[in-house]
């Protein structure tokens, strides 16, 4: 590793002193330390051992989580890396957070972990208290119902089911007909209606059957898997910097909105759209952005055509973009709130916020054995308390602005390597394109060998997904490594 320094005009007095990662993780490393290649020999050997029972081909390296701390992940070979990928945007307050470790020793947490109930039928006496102290404290505006689930994919699948049931109940008005009950058992209409979910090209909503039918990010995710014949609308392909392409981007968004409405109208005679699902930032497909105005217009179109509106905040939620929910930036008015908001990842628990009108009409319709996990619900409660007590959402907004300006100052010297730098005003949810996938992959490999672990998305995009505890010193480390690698690649 080179000696750390402040890039160009970045000085210590630039930093806000509201929060430092050391405040929560006093023992975390202050810089990366690379002893071997990444992955090193021990990682490779452990991957080979894992490969005897499980496919290891997606391994970056094998981690030693007992030694990892704060923003730093340690691998099996003792390499210490600044982690700005964070288990695909899933770690909120750092590895081995001291307050979480202390809470994990409590009787409450231990007993919740060991006595896992079937929540739909046998909830614990504390269930209402745990939910109201935790997950309901951050419920999106207008959504006072919560269904806990097992993961982000199941959260989206649950939202689909609730939307379909509510859509048909709204049409039917009463109880099921005999014909509906009989035909659903053979997967035929009217009991199994020919409805659809509208998604967007480049979106990612999971890898199970219904969610995979709405995932449009990479063919490798979908090939060979039977899918529902559901429509996909174009998502705006904006030009960057945004401030230099206002007219072109407005025209692009208007064109996409016209196509969305055309699909909604056309589908009414074939497979009516019961709901549309959208990410505030299309993450896995390459970090595609759109304006708040575009999303407000989408919401209005859904209302106009009586289509439920699902916002997938699995990756963007829980403070990642400098607001707790990314869709807060859309400034939806009263009565325009989403019908469903799904979450997972940084919350460490998963579920769907929704409205009473979309609760299933009868028991057991929205049901499975676990329906979430009290242990993860309690973990989420503690994470939310840490986020609140340390003002980490506000911190992410502030540190994100600093990180954006710092990288902008570096990137201006590498116009042939860095394209479409984006995410200004979106906290640390930053990304950029590189000329092609091979150059992007080479960049990711080189920064990893120098002690920074980051990830890609789409065909040629680099994305940053640091934790909410990413702070001042981490900006310096990241900027130093990125600048050094870009200089090497330029030469």
TrEMBL record:
It is an enzyme of class 2 (transferase). It comes from the Eukaryota. Keywords: Aminotransferase, Pyridoxal phosphate, Transferase. Its EC number is 2.6.1.19. One of its GO terms (biological process) is gamma-aminobutyric acid catabolic process. Pfam families: Aminotran_3 (PF00202). GO terms for molecular function: 4-aminobutyrate:2-oxoglutarate transaminase activity; pyridoxal phosphate binding. It catalyses: 4-aminobutanoate + 2-oxoglutarate = succinate semialdehyde + L-glutamate. The keyword Transcription regulation does not apply. This is 4-aminobutyrate aminotransferase. Belongs to the class-III pyridoxal-phosphate-dependent aminotransferase family. It comes from Tremella mesenterica. Gene3D superfamilies: Aspartate Aminotransferase, domain 1 (3.90.1150.10), Type I PLP-dependent aspartate aminotransferase-like (Major domain) (3.40.640.10). One of its GO terms (cellular component) is mitochondrion.
């Amino acid at each position: 590793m080179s000696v750390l320094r402040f890039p160009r005009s970045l000085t210590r007095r630039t930093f806000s002193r509201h929060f430092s990662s050391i405040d929560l993780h006093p023992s975390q490393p202050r810089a990366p330390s690379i002893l071997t290649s990444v992955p090193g020999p021990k990682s490779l050997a452990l991957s080979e051992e894992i490969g005897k029972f499980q496919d290891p081909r997606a391994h970056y390296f094998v981690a030693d989580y007992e030694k990892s701390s704060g923003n730093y992940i340690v691998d099996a070979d003792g390499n210490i890396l600044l982690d700005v990928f964070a288990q695909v945007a899933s770690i909120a307050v750092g590895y081995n957070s001291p307050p979480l470790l202390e809470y994990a020793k409590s009787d409450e947490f231990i007993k919740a972990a060991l006595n896992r109930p079937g929540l739909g039928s046998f909830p614990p006496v504390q269930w209402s208290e745990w939910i109201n102290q935790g997950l309901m404290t951050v419920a999106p505006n207008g959504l006072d119902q919560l269904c806990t689930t097992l993961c982000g994919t199941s959260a989206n699948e649950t939202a689909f089911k609730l939307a379909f049931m509510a859509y048909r109940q709204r049409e039917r008005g009463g109880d099921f007909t005999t014909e509906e009950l009989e035909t659903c058992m053979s997967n035929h209409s009217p009991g199994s209606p020919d409805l659809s979910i509208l998604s967007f090209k480049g979106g990612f909503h999971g890898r199970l059957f219904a969610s995979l039918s709405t995932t449009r990010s990479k063919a490798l995710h979908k090939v060979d898997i039977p899918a529902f014949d559901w429509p996909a609308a174009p998502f705006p392909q904006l030009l960057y910097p945004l401030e230099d392409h206002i007219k072109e981007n407005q025209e692009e968004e208007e064109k996409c909105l016209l196509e969305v409405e055309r699909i909604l109208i056309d589908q009414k005679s074939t497979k009516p759209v019961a709901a549309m699902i959208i990410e505030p930032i299309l993450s896995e497909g390459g970090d595609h952005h759109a304006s708040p105005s575009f999303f407000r217009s989408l919401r209005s179109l859904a209302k106009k055509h009586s289509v439920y509106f699902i916002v997938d905040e699995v990756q963007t939620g829980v403070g990642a973009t400098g607001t707790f929910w990314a869709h807060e930036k859309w400034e939806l008015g009263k009565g325009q709130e989403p019908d469903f908001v799904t979450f997972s990842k940084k919350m460490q628990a998963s579920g769907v916020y929704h409205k009473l009108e979309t609760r299933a009409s009868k028991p057991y319709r929205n049901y499975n054995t676990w329906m979430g996990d009290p242990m993860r619900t309690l973990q989420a409660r503690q994470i939310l308390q840490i986020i609140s007590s340390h003002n980490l959402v506000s911190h992410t907004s502030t540190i994100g602005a600093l990180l954006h300006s710092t990288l902008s100052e570096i990137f201006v010297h590498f116009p042939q390597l860095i394209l479409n730098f984006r995410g200004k005003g979106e906290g640390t949810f930053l990304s950029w394109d590189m000329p092609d996938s091979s150059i992007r992959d080479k960049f990711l490999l080189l920064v990893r060998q120098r002690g920074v672990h980051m990830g890609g998305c789409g065909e040629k995009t680099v994305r940053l997904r640091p934790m909410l505890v990413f702070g001042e010193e981490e900006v310096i480390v990241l900027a130093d490594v990125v600048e050094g690698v870009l200089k090497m690649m330029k030469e």
